[in-house]
Amino acid sequence: MSPALAKEIPREEGEGGSRRSGWGLLVTAGVGGTLVALYAVATPFVTPALRKVCLPFVPATAAQIQNVLKMLENRSGSLVDIGSGDGRIVIAAAKKGFQAVGYELNPWLVWYSRYRAWRDGVHQNTKFYISDLWKVSFSHYRNIVVFGVPQMMPQLEKKLEEELECNTRIIACRFPFPRWIPDHTTGEGIDTVWAYDLKHSRGCEIKSLEITSETES
Questions:
Q1: DSSP-based three-state secondary structure for 173
Q2: Quick check: 132 and 104 in contact, CB under 8 A?
Q3: How many whole angstroms separate alpha carbon 159 and alpha carbon 157?
Q4: How does DSSP classify residue 183?
Q5: Cα–Cα distance measured from residue 89 to residue 82, given in angstroms and rounded to the nearest whole number
Q6: Which of 60, 75, 132, 172 is deepest in the core (most CB within 10 A)?
Q7: Predicted pLDDT at 125
Q8: What pTM was estimated for this model as a whole?
Q9: In sequence order, what DSSP letters do the residues of 45-64 get, joined into one string?
Q10: What is 99-137 written as a DSSP string?
Q11: Which residue numbers in the chain have pLDDT < 50?
């Protein structure tokens, strides 16, 4: 083998190794970028599931929305949807004249809800907040919509009973509250909706009797 040929062989091998190394870096960078993107997208969806009480996102059906609106007939004032998801209940209520607010832990769903409200022309009558429902006071709302799960309903029932005024209506979808007796019920199966008027609860009746007694005396 000539000296010139012997020098060319290592050079070609070195160039091939450099190309392979370059491709390896590109593949590593691509995989790493993909994993980071997946983490950024998935984290808001996974994080709620790691909490003590999981409130998964299950979109409301058209029948559920109509049943909720039926329970809101002849009602007015402020409305809040606890666990508002993609905002469809809030938007439907705003179209009926309510000043409607949604609380949702998932930021992607909140941003999408804001876009939908803008697209449907009700963004001035709606607000969406990224917040944990256990850290929010609902005392100034007169209409409450809840899409909950059985594990959270006893705790939420206690929280709302402590915070809300006696003229508040609470509408539960899919799962009822464990202790309260509903004043109105509509729908069937997963589309069932229960409405609770706090003025009929024992605490409000006692408060009303006390006010009447003081007035008479």
A1: strand
A2: no
A3: 6
A4: S
A5: 10
A6: 172
A7: 95
A8: 0.70
A9: HHHHHTSSS-----PPPHHH
A10: EEEEEES-HHHHHHHHHHHHHTT-GGGEEEEE--GGG--
A11: 4-9, 12-13, 29, 31-53, 202, 206-217
